[in-house]
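re: that chain from earlier
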Amino acid sequence: MNRTLTLIVGGVIFAAALAAAVLFSDRGTPDPTEGAPANVPAAPVTPQ
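^ sequence. v structure.
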């Protein structure tokens, strides 16, 4: 196998492994505790 083909095959394997890691991990939807800190309001407060 020449170098170019080796790099292409390695890139395909790396991309497949990365896609599998993303698909099979639970990081797609963050936990509620991972949002904004509790002391920061969700919407800006309008002055009265």
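The two ends are 72 Å apart (CA to CA).
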